[in-house]
Automatic annotation (TrEMBL):
Keywords: Lyase. It catalyses: (2S,3S)-2-methylcitrate = 2-methyl-cis-aconitate + H2O. The keyword Lyase applies. The keyword Lyase applies. SUPFAM superfamilies: 2-methylcitrate dehydratase PrpD. Its EC number is 4.2.1.79. Residues 287-471 form the MmgE/PrpD C-terminal domain. This is 2-methylcitrate dehydratase. GO terms for molecular function: 2-methylcitrate dehydratase activity. The lineage of its organism: Bacteria, Bacillati, Actinomycetota, Actinomycetes, Micrococcales. Residues 21-263 form the MmgE/PrpD N-terminal domain. Belongs to the PrpD family. It is an enzyme of class 4 (lyase). Monomer.
Length: 505
């Protein structure tokens, strides 16, 4: 059972008791010592495996190397592990969370939840795990902390739109990580309340990081939120306080960064004693691309098999994708970003370009996290020719389904209409990705393990793959020492193939 918390701006001369502030209610949820269902625990395990998979695949990518080199400059005991580095080496937990967060986020390949706001709730795992390793927490407390992180981020995403006001989605992540760490550490409500407020205050930023030429900061932004949340918890534990009320204040987040004084947000939070189940509403990615691209990749590979003539740009007059407002205006032609049609654009830009993604998947009948984004693939003349013929338009019905609170009709796809040079038309549609819980082939534990094995191949030794999986599948029963082993170690010599950049540290 959930309670909808009305959240609005209050003038400074209006009374708003602390117990009715959103940050305080979040803290109460985090401090509630309720247990978890078996289904939630199993899903937490799946997402730990999923995060490790995409982190493994990104270990030698430039942003990950950079973030890892910063963490390596901060050795600490007891500390936390860094992805790729031997588990016997430990680093300051906030820097470990930073490095691991970038590794998880770099390929845009882990889980998602989309509602009023977008989110990648798996971003909660690196900072919560880093703190668990640092303090010597058990697997039981780790899983509980992760479940809280998911609960709070997803509940906030259900109610409060950030992108509408050009605020980046990690503004929901800072509070959720702080809450998750609060659960992990069994902190009291007041301490968590102060940490949540500080985490929100320090993690609000604009969406320019996802507009135009998308830079490597996109992979750093969630890691920064996690790092800031750890530091916020540390300060709160030392007795330091937060701007209050952080959401509702006259000069607070709602008043000036979001909807303003006239807007009321109804945020759903579990009532006291209610189990935290929000993780079950999230879904992972089968393909390394923006989540709204998942269903379109699946439809494109289906059309590739059914209509092989579509690989030839000369056979196609135009391709129009009818889809939701978000897909059209953020990753479609409605964004009016010329970079989305630029063969020399960055990988980060291409994975936010539905025209590019659909064209490549249509031609290849598949998607690969490396080759589908290579400069050679993006610059292929026949691909460029087909790519330029793909546009998107908003369809009100697909927008309505995108925002529906009914999980049985909520959709992230749309309808494609393809006009051929011979006058024929091909029309098809897809509502959700194949891997979605309501899709053609919903992801199960075996799929997460297969994804991990695939992405870890050539990166981790076979024995290391088995060692990590054996630990991850026992996550809720791990001892404190075993939690400290819950990391991936690159095969010998792999990390030496890249050069650590030099900075201040």
């Amino acid at each position: 059972m959930v309670e909808y918390i009305p959240v609005r701006t209050y003038r400074s001369d209006e009374e708003l008791p602390r117990q009715k502030q959103l940050a305080y209610r979040i803290a109460e949820v985090a401090a509630d010592e309720v247990g978890l269902t078996d289904e939630v625990v199993d899903t937490v395990i799946n997402r730990i495996i999923d995060n490790a998979a995409v982190a493994a695949a990104s270990l030698t990518r430039t942003p990950v190397v950079s973030a890892r080199s910063q963490a390596l400059a901060h050795p600490y005991s007891p500390g936390a592990t860094v992805s790729g580095v031997p588990v016997t080496e430990h680093f300051s937990p906030e820097w470990a969370a930073w490095a691991n967060g970038v590794a998880v986020r770099e390929l845009d390949f882990h889980d998602t939840f989309l509602a009023a706001e977008y989110s990648h709730p798996g971003d909660n795992i690196p900072p919560i795990l880093a703190v668990a390793q640092h303090v010597g927490a058990t697997g039981h407390d780790l899983v509980r902390g992760i479940a809280t992180g998911y609960e709070i981020q997803i509940d906030l995403a259900k109610a409060i739109s950030l992108h509408e006001h050009k605020i980046d989605h990690v503004a929901h992540l800072g509070p959720s990580v702080a809450a998750g760490i609060g659960t992990l550490l069994h902190l009291d409500v007041e301490t968590i309340f102060q940490a949540v407020g500080q985490a929100l205050h320090t993690t609000t930023a604009t969406r320019q990081s996802r507009k135009g030429e998308i830079s490597s900061w996109k992979s750093h932004a969630p890691a920064f939120a996690g790092k800031q949340a750890i530091e916020a918890v540390d300060r709160a534990m030392r007795g330091e306080t937060s701007p209050t009320p952080i959401y509702e204040g006259e000069d607070g987040v709602i008043a000036w960064l979001l909807g303003g004084p006239k807007v009321v947000y109804d945020v759903p939070l579990p009532v006291a004693g209610e189990q935290k189940r929000a993780i079950l509403d999230s879904y992972t990615k089968e393909h390394s691309a923006e989540y709204q691209a998942q269903a379109w990749i699946d439809l494109a590979r289906k059309l590739h098999g059914e209509h092989p003539e579509l690989v030839n740009p000369d056979a196609v007059t135009r391709i129009v994708i009818h889809t939701s407002h978000h897909t059209h205006f953020v990753i479609g032609s409605g964004a009016n970003d010329p970079q989305k049609y630029d063969p020399t654009a960055s990988r980060e830009t291409l994975d936010h370009s539905i025209p590019y993604i659909f064209a490549v998947a249509l031609q290849d009948g598949s998607w690969n996290h490396v080759t589908s984004y290579s400069p050679e693939r993006a610059g292929r003349p026949d691909t460029v020719a087909l790519w330029q013929k793909v546009t998107t338009v908003e369809d009100p019905e697909w927008t309505r389904r995108y925002h529906s609170n009914d999980v049985t009709e909520k959709a992230f796809g749309g309808r494609v209409e393809i006009e051929l040079a011979n006058g024929e038309r091909i029309v098809d549609e897809i509502a959700v990705a194949d891997a979605h819980p309501l899709g053609a082939r919903p992801f199960q534990r075996a799929d997460y393990i297969a994804k991990f094995r695939t992405l870890a191949e050539g990166v981790l030794e076979p024995a290391e793959i088995e060692r990590f999986l054996a630990l991850a599948e026992r996550a809720p029963d791990l001892s404190a020492d075993e939690v400290r082993q819950l990391s991936i170690v690159a095969k010998p010599g792999l990390l030496a193939t890249v050069t650590n950049p030099k900075g201040l540290f």
